[in-house]
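In keeping with the milestone schedule agreed at the kick-off meeting, the structural modelling team has produced records for the first pair of proteins. Each record is given below as a sequence line and a structure-token line. The laboratory manager (R.T.) confirmed that both were archived under the project's standard naming scheme.
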Amino acid sequence: MRVVSLVPSLTEAVAVTLPGVLVGATDWCSHPVDLDVSRIGGTKNPDVERILGLAPDLVIANEEENRAPDLDALRAGGPEVLVTEVRSVPQAFRELERVLAACGAPGRPPWLDEAEAVWSGLPEPEGRTTAVVPIWRRPWMVLGRDTFAGDVLARLGVHHLYAAHPDRYPRVPLDELRAAAPDVVVLPDEPYKFTADDGPEAFPGLSCALVSGRHLTWYGPSLAEAPRVLAEALRAAHR
């Protein structure tokens, strides 16, 4: 089996579970850190000819991260293209199992069982914290409705204030974000790399939590530690 992954979190899941199966991954596939495969461009601009030149049996993709014209071009070139949809934590586990089976896994890997046990064992949140969750600036964009990251936060007791917005990633003026007066502004380090010096200064007087984008938005082995890592970052914002 020869597999090309167009999704960083799925790259990590396949590489950890089935070493040697991956032959190509995007430039953004940063885990495992020692991943040694051909790089085929970005999630939004993959090099279709380079991918086809790797002669994959399977290309794994995601309906949100990858563009339909690229996936159509890959299908036309011969390989099977498996497209995932992940908008909640339970859906992530189902899709991970489906992807790994398609890549040749004989069964569920231990890390997947561990991650699912961690999430199913979370206690009911004692209270609710309101948040806005920017994912980009210039222009400012935030989490909206029906997102995986939004479901992750909800299960940790964080209600983001644009969860009912008609758009999944709405553009919202900064003044409106400030006026929403959330308990916390959650600033991940991807897709936009918010840092202590780039992001919090836009929200004077509001608590800001700098969080790992991998633990907030990736569905893979990082799911096992995501609740702990994210909870620690959220607590740190209120110290």
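The second protein of the pair:
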Amino acid sequence: MDAKSNAVFWQEKWERGETGFHETQANPLLTRHIAALDLPAGARIFVPLCGMSQDMVWLAGQGFHVTGCELSDIAVRRFFSDLGITPDIVDAEPLRCFSAGTIRIFAGNIFDLTPDLLGPMDGIYDRAALIALPEDLRRAYAAHLLSLTGPVPELLVTLDYDQSCLKGPPFSVDEAFLRECYGQAYAFTLLESRAVEGGLKGRCPASENVWRLSPLPPSS
């Protein structure tokens, strides 16, 4: 699937209301492990492909400044509507920036987001971005993410399962792939691995893995 087809796929899911992946509360893997990034209060956290995740609300409640990027304008508007908030909206062609309090979300394709628009970030939380993309786009996404933020501490949640059992998304991402994409910039620590209860989509065994990506020191 190319970038254009992938964008259409996700836009149509939001338009049809096929959002079974959305969680109505903060993900327990986030609440258990965000401290592993050792970020100070007020740190700026980037949440790529954020949807209308309640994780952003939880992070803001912990005193962080949260920036998301989400392809679907529907998801962004619903996120703020569900909170009963009317956000400020600013054109940032070809994106739009919705903001309220310590949360802002860029609506549009993440590949159109630039470092100047995003601004400096202190950390990244990726629960559903990397695993949402097919393999070729995952590589492009990983490179783009590094170009946006540089190597900053990241909390990354992945799934590992037999890809022949299920087409995806979500896709299986193993440690070897992580090292291929991020190994030049990060050291990896597996913080938790747990079996997906009932199997992934009830069809095949899978593990959900939580990684801390720690920036490597600059080479001399």
